[in-house]
């Protein structure tokens, strides 16, 4: 007898959870039908009802990563300017176990994405959208006098994204050196460095 | 008849070249005995004389990456201060096809390294050494008055490494948006942002 639709939905959730746990522990390099089946304590044959091919499993994993990133809890966004940028950058960092797992899976996906033209384009598009999301807040910060008048918001958005993603990688490899408070202090130092000193600026030199 | 020692050495070089080309194109996720054999137009059986296991192939690939990184051509190091830091950061970026291949292989290795405790420790050690190499030049820059007196060189070295590695990733995914001159301009903007404005500082605000 085939499972009832409700069971099927619940089982699909179980499968996604198992895929996530395998990714968080072993990355895309360790994502196999066998590893997911072992994680669920089911047969590989059972799992092939969900993923007839390795490719189907990878596609599901990438969709799951996209979905969980979109649905992740985020900090309240202050109204405008650098404090909004700060909240956006902190939302990217591996500051909680959940954030760490997600970041670790993103970093792991880069090997796969760089080897596939379509995935490379998608990933470049993600970075472009991220810069576009940050840019207006840098413009607002400039207009508020928090940043120098000569600031190029697009260039600065690219620098901020680069800094934040590089910090993600350092923190994933060396969580002892980069615990939560150190990551936050680095973001604050970075933001202080781009703000001009003196009244109106964030830099207390 | 076994090959003469000279032949064997030459063949070993051929194998390393083929491993490198596979890594540059497909990353560690695409590194298989079959792919390397195809690249060399030899049988997988022949290749198993060099790499009896997949693990041996991966170990060789990681050693090769380490070796080629250590032996890469580098810019002349100015005597001291921020201009030295600039040369060091530029030496990391994907500014030439060779640099791009090497960076692409490093990024690809992170999936593997994050899944293996020993490799994670080695990678964390590499970042620690990189920060230690940059730090004295930031100290010198501070002592020369190029950086504010309150600069924390260790923290700033970590910020500089994060920025540079994040830029590597953005440039690999979107070389059209981040060609050589844009990457260099970003490094210069980053360095200008950490230097204090006014006489003696590098910031022309």
UniProtKB/TrEMBL annotation, chains A, B:
Annotated transmembrane regions: none
Record-linked Pfam families: TetR_C_6 (PF13977), TetR_N (PF00440)
Record feature DNA-binding region, as residue ranges: 32-51
Cleavable signal peptide: none
UniProt domain HTH tetR-type: residue ranges: 9-69
Keywords associated with the record: DNA-binding, Repressor, Transcription, Transcription regulation
GO molecular function: DNA-binding transcription factor activity; transcription cis-regulatory region binding
Gene3D superfamilies linked to this entry: Tetracycline Repressor, domain 2 (1.10.357.10)
Record's protein name: TetR-family transcriptional regulator
Organism: Streptomyces pristinaespiralis (strain ATCC 25486 / DSM 40338 / CBS 914.69 / JCM 4507 / KCC S-0507 / NBRC 13074 / NRRL 2958 / 5647)
């Amino acid at each position: 007898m085939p499972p009832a639709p409700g069971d099927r939905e619940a089982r699909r959730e179980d499968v996604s959870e198992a895929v996530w746990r395998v990714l968080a522990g072993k990355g895309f390099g360790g994502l196999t039908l066998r590893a997911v089946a072992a994680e669920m304590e089911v047969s590989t044959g059972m799992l092939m009802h969900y993923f007839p091919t390795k490719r189907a499993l990878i596609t599901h994993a990438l969709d799951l990563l996209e979905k969980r990133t979109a649905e992740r809890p985020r900090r309240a966004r202050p109204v405008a300017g650098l404090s909004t940028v700060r909240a956006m950058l902190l939302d990217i960092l591996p500051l909680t176990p959940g954030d760490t797992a997600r970041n670790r899976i993103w970093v792991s996906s880069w090997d796969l994405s760089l080897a596939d033209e379509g995935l490379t384009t998608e990933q470049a598009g993600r970075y472009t959208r991220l810069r576009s999301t940050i840019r207006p807040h840098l413009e607002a910060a400039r207009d508020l006098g928090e940043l120098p008048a000569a600031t190029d918001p697009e260039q600065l958005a690219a620098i901020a994204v680069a800094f934040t993603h590089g910090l993600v990688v350092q923190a994933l490899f060396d969580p002892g050196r980069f615990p939560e408070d150190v990551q936050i202090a680095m973001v604050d130092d970075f933001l202080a460095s781009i703000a001009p000193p003196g009244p109106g600026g964030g830099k207390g030199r």
